[in-house]
Amino acid sequence: MSEVASSDRARSEAGSAISSVSRPASAMPLLRERVRAADPVIGTFVKTTSPQTIEVLGHSGLDFAVLDAEHAPFGVESLDRTLGAARGAGLAALVRIPDHAPAFINTCLDLGASGVLVPHTLTAADAEAIADAARFGRGQRGFSPSGRAGSYGQIDHASYRAAADSGCNIWCQIEDRAAMSRLDEIAAVDAVDCLFIGPADLSLSLGYGGMDDPRLLEAIRAIAAAGRRHGRAVGLYVGNTGKVADMIALGITVFVCGSDQGFMLGRAKQVATDFSSAREKTSQPA
């Protein structure tokens, strides 16, 4: 049975469990459904560990956030606080994990993460191992309903496992030369919801001159084509939305745009520039 069919059955079995938890928690499986349906979605990386950041982003209209535990100072306690804020704000929140350790994946999901963004996925075996760590139905993920994801033990165990699996996003980052030669085998893993392109690391791994190197676009096209061949969603990090329409035309439908730090710094620099210009105008002699 495919992951999609299993997910459909899980949603049916999990109906009573989902309705018994808060509205934001019940809304979270929608992100995986939209990704699987190739409905374009956009979110951002979160680099600061403040729960207020997540609460603010919950009012932004973004579809999701990715807490960056690979390149930002997230630990278990800060993930607990920020994922709790995401649950309260009704904002789907994935965690970009620092490595493929099953115990940490389990912890993130127990805390209420909507899934994981997995760096440096090189092979189909890597993708399968991540799925083993993330989905109860595969028989290897450790089970406890006592945390936030299990509504602190208030959900029937079988229903909780079904609901958790149906809402758990697995996004595998394609950012290495080694992965480029195995695109079809990785894309063929039905447990994977999205092939996510990390353009900076991919450019470095391929020996290109940076993210503006025209050869990188050809690599992005190749990944998008593999996604199309296997019915797999493809995602991409973008610094701004300027090229989103062109990327959607290639079949890329999941976008992570910038970060909370970038948003804050960009706006602050613009205010400083505008103020400097205004001050210069008023200081000029009449």
* Oligomer status: single chain
CATH topology: TIM Barrel
The level 1 CATH classification is Alpha Beta
Which ranges are low-confidence, i.e. pLDDT below 50, for 5 or more consecutive residues? 4-27
Name the average pLDDT. Answer: 91
Report the span from N to C terminus. Answer: 78 Å
**What percentage of residues falls in helices of 4 or more residues?**
40-55%
Descriptive overview:
With 286 residues, the protein is α/β, with parallel strands linked by helices. The protein has a single domain, classed as Alpha-Beta Barrel (TIM Barrel). The protein is built from 15 helices and eight strands. It has helices spanning 3-13, 15-19, 23-27, 29-36, 51-57, 76-89, 102-110, 124-134, 157-167, 177-180, 183-187, 199-206, 214-230, 244-249, 260-283; strands at residues 41-46, 64-68, 92-96, 115-118, 169-174, 194-197, 233-238, 254-259. The protein has an eight-stranded parallel beta barrel, surrounded by seven helices. Strand 7, helix 14 (244-249) and strand 8 form a beta-alpha-beta unit. Helix 5 runs parallel beside helix 6. It is globular.
